[in-house]
Design goal:
The protein is mainly alpha-helical. The protein has four helices and no strands. The longest helix has 32 residues.
Length: 96
């Protein structure tokens, strides 16, 4: 019985890892396709008087509005990932 449960758990973990990798690759591909949009918006907001959380919320709103107007399909967590990736890259480059 323990061997059967162990085998099932091992299989479920493998499926979970494969699914996580699929999501990561899909999200990363999507983020790469829309990176410049986020860069432009984040650089514009960087010098505003808004607080950090307000800048993030405004960036999210602007990115989402533009993507919707262009008919681009997305998930909110993809936009969140895109913002985080771009902010980290711009900070590393000293641009913000």
């Amino acid at each position: 019985m323990n061997r059967v449960l162990s085998a099932i758990l091992t299989g479920l973990k493998a499926v979970g890892r494969a699914f996580a990798n699929l999501l990561k690759s899909e999200a990363m591909k999507w983020a790469a396709e829309h990176k410049q949009l986020a860069v432009d918006i984040i650089l514009e907001l960087a010098t505003s008087a808004l607080s950090g959380p307000e800048k993030r919320a405004e960036a999210f709103k602007r990115i989402k509005t533009i993507l919707l107007s262009e008919g681009v399909g997305f998930k909110d967590h993809f936009v969140n990932l895109l913002i985080e990736l771009v902010v980290a890259e711009l900070k590393d480059k000293g641009e913000i």
